[in-house]
């Protein structure tokens, strides 16, 4: 029942039924008048087997360790025939990579079989052929005992495929160690791993995890070896000791990470940190090294101090957070930040001491944000956008930027928002790039008005950019004994250029500075020796200024200031008082005799010390409607002075006006340490050539007096020069007309 006979009248007809069912078939013969006869047979339709194969691929190149298991269905007794081995068991091993098939036959009815094809996949050749022996060290004690791998006469080749625990003292000597992806070397407590004698640890196509120091008693020594391709080549989270010397760290995401504790006995000397080719292996193939060294909550560590370390080609050379870092005799190049020090937890110390390091070709040399001590002394900075930046170090933090050498920088030293900090910026030599943003030293919002400010002293600055010293929103500081030179530009990039610019400050002492333009081309553009705006109660004495368009400029509220003993050499304007200056106690302040009965005058000397400024004025009051805010001001010099003021006619000392009278008293006597800043200059160019340069090159800055002076013959100019400054333009025109009608 249930089967189907294709042709019931044919004894050789096909019969079909359901697999796994048993049928009874009857063949009947009838031929009357004979008696009918029949025969029966029982037929079982055995099921057709299926077979699935589970395969184990090759584990390591060069090793035939593939395996497979045939899983036929339904259950029963089967015979197995493999094309890739002579074995007849359902599971086979020792298979080489390649395609294989298996045939399974039902043993109860040998006429029923099934086949399956599978492939043993070859292992990725991670390493060169010499590593295909695939040693798989699980830990030192069970595989090697306390000892070493490699000798000088028999260099070892080792591949590590799973986490390798160092639980006895152990050394890699003369060893090449290939490490699989995501594998760690773990140094257990009270154990030391030494990697030396030119050993080389690396990942072949992907990055490995790194060497993990699991305990504060773990120890790592790396000497004269190379560590490559690790996520974190050395990782310590519990103040474990590491000593690294004379080695190479290359193409690591992070070379050394240390955190939580004192690393005073750890050291890194004579080692090169780099990222060859500028990219890492997968999974970071499009990136370069992140940080060569990371420090987090490290109380003390010294990097350098012996043989020179080289840090190059990473985002950050050393990234220090809430740590105390001593840094000396290191070379940094091609970083976004060579040193970045951050105070993330305001309750933690963050300190940096850096000396005798070299920084080049980077965005920032030293960048410190927050902390209580930043000392950067005697370092060299070359071609960095900003040499030193310290910001938000507050509440009496100490900031010392001293005796550093800087060249081709956009910004030499930038101190920003260090409220209440004690700052010393001194003895630095800075040369800026030819860049409109370039400047030597900038101090902004670094103190509140109740505390001491920054002291900028004894610096030597040559700037091709906007300024030498920029001092803004500070108080009670000092700009002293600096030498600042504005270099000429090949093109006019800046609207204004300053040797020293002071904005919105109070009670500053600015003395003994030498401020100059390199040549007389600076007289043709807005350039200033010293410019102050909204900066009252200042002492400005014994400065020397030369070859800038304006020697000293005062705009906004700069009253209650004393200006004495300064020397102005060859400017368009010696002393310039702008339109917004208020006349309360006087921009200039008390110019009367000092306690030693010396006149608090300033010295004005022009071309070849003549006392006559080229086409300009020793003293200039900008706003014609307001009285010049001068009190008891004596114009003291060594010859006649050009003075401009709408109220100068008939002025006298008692009327708090300008006295144009020449006084024979010597100027204020500067202290001996200022004498080198007030030396007279000697011009190399001819007077008439200088006048031509001024009028032809100053564009919209020429006034009528300048044009007329240039137009007059030299002889007439000589005769008018003594008087023209005291005359208004109509008088000059009248004199000019007379000179044409009747030559002198």
Distance between the termini: 148 Å
Calculate Rg over CA atoms: 45 Å
**Multimerization state:** single chain
In total, the number of strands is 60
Measured as a percent range, the helix fraction is under 10%
Notes on the protein architecture:
This protein is mainly beta and 744 residues long. 6% of the residues lie in helices and 45% in strands. The chain has a 48-stranded parallel beta sheet that branches. A 3-stranded antiparallel beta sheet has the order 5-6-8, with no helix packed on it. A 3-stranded antiparallel beta sheet has the order 7-9-10, with no helix packed on it. Strand 3 and strand 4 (37-44) form a beta hairpin. The chain is elongated. The relative contact order is 0.04.
Q: Helices, strands, pairings?
A:
Layout: E1 4-5, E2 15-16, E3 22-29, E4 37-44, E5 50-56, E6 66-73, E7 78-82, E8 91-95, E9 98-106, E10 113-120, H1 140-143, E11 147-149, E12 156-160, E13 164-166, E14 170-173, E15 175-179, E16 184-187, E17 192-196, E18 200-203, E19 210-213, E20 219-223, E21 226-228, E22 232-236, E23 241-245, E24 248-250, E25 254-261, E26 267-269, E27 272-274, E28 289-298, E29 301-321, E30 324-342, E31 351-355, E32 358-369, E33 373-377, E34 380-391, E35 398-402, E36 405-409, E37 411-416, E38 422-426, E39 429-432, E40 439-444, E41 454-457, E42 460-463, E43 467-472, E44 478-480, E45 483-486, E46 497-503, E47 509-511, E48 514-517, E49 527-533, E50 539-541, E51 544-546, E52 550-555, E53 562-564, E54 567-569, E55 573-577, E56 603-605, E57 617-621, E58 633-636, E59 643-644, E60 658-663, H2 687-697, H3 704-711, H4 714-720, H5 729-741
Parallel strand pairs: 11-14, 12-15, 13-16, 14-17, 15-18, 16-19, 17-20, 18-21, 19-22, 20-23, 21-24, 22-25, 23-26, 24-27, 25-28, 26-29, 27-29, 28-29, 29-30, 30-31, 30-32, 31-33, 32-34, 33-35, 34-36, 34-37, 35-38, 36-39, 37-40, 38-41, 39-42, 40-43, 41-44, 42-45, 43-46, 44-47, 45-48, 46-49, 47-50, 48-51, ...
Antiparallel strand pairs: 1-2, 3-4, 5-6, 6-8, 7-9, 9-10
Helix pairs in contact: 2-3
